Amino acid sequence: MEVKHPLSNQTSNNSTQGSMDRVRKKKFWNTQRIILVVGGGAIIAFIGYQVFFSDKRSKLNVEADKLTVSSVSTGSFDEFIVVTGVIQPLKTIRLDAIVGGYVKEKIVEGGSMVSQGQVLLRLENQNLKLNFLQSETEASRLVNDLQNTRQQLRVNRFNMRRTLNELDFKIDQAKDIYDRNQKLFKDKVIPESDFLKSKRDYELLVKQRDIETESQNYQEENAKMQITQLEGTLVRTQKNVELWRQTLDNLVVKAPVSGMLSSIDVEVGSNISQGQNIGQIDDLDGFKMRVAIDEHYISRIFVGLMGHFDFNGKEHNLQITRIYPEVRNGRFEVDMSFPKGAPEGIKRGQSTPIRLDLGKAEKAMLLPVGGFFSDTGGNWVYVLDNSGKRASKRNITLGRKNPEFYEVLEGLQPGEKVITSSYANFGDKEVLEMK
Question: Model-level pTM greater than 0.70?
């Protein structure tokens, strides 16, 4: 039988326990801790990148096939505008009613060729006829009054001559008596009273003749003045009669010139008033262009400015000959002539685009015209990067404009690509991502 000593057993257990404690001791950098440290570092690095290095600009995904992309280029900038011109006759004569009345007869229809003096309409106006008759009656009365006054003047002249002749006879008799009595009185043959009576009779007759002469001169002048006044009144009345006659003649409307009666807007039985437009005649000997231009360019338009347009495959020049400064609905009008004559086959009423040159061609950086301008005012654009997949907002400065290009002053370089279609759907995004 084996007996175990208690002390030795305890020693043995302690030795075994110490050996087991040394084997189970754990390491600090175990797998779990390493994973936590690496993961935390990655998160911190990501946050730091987002804070300090990532692109924080607002972005928008857009469909590339719905955009218009244009290249910035260098070339010749022609400053011009495209306007629309309408062919018009060189001269258009308005037909306005000189007098009013109702249409009694319509002889020519619109669209017909007419010759100068040809009757177009006949009007009727009874009031004008009545006024003409009254004026003629007044002229006839004045003619009779003038004839009567002249006749009366001649009669008065005969009577005045007769009166003066009788006075001269009496004066001669009185003078004979006076001379004889004067001699007899000197010889003291007759009394002084007889002498003085003969003297007074003679002197009375002489004074009567002077008064009669003065009276006759006054009557003569008065009669002449009446005749002059009647003659003046008669002349004015006769002119008035002639005016009324011409007015009646104007009831027959005639063509003032030869040409095409392009319109005549009246019918038989209709009533037209004085001054009313009833049609127009086109002079087909030449044509001009009537052009409407935006008021923005009014300070740059002048007589002599050139333009050109294409007709039947050929280019034709035009020149501004007249400017109408009145602005209506934001536009004003000019007339343009054909320096070398109107093209053959051109017709009234045709419209055509005209290129109106505003300045000489100059070398410049060019950006094609597009809808972006209405959204940005030309202050900025979206410029594509080299990959063509991203477009960023960039401030630019534009100068002049023609229907094809803007002149680029700052912000772009030749060869760069710009989105030139409308930006209406992009809001205030700074970057566009293509997809």
Answer: no
Quick check: is 230 in a domain?
yes
pLDDT, tens digit, for every residue of 188-246?
888 888 889 988 988 898 998 888 888 888 888 888 888 888 888 888 888 888 888 88
Q: Give the total number of structural domains in the chain.
A: 3
Question: Within this chain, do residues 146 and 162 fall inside the same structural domain, yes or no?
Answer: yes
Domain co-membership, 296 together with 389: no
The residue from 357, 379, 404 where one domain ends is: 357
Q: Which two tokens stand for residue 158?
A: 């005969």
Domain with 326, as residue range(s), is: 81-86+284-357
Phi, psi of 365 (to 5 degrees): -85, 130
Does residue 42 lie in a domain region?
A: no
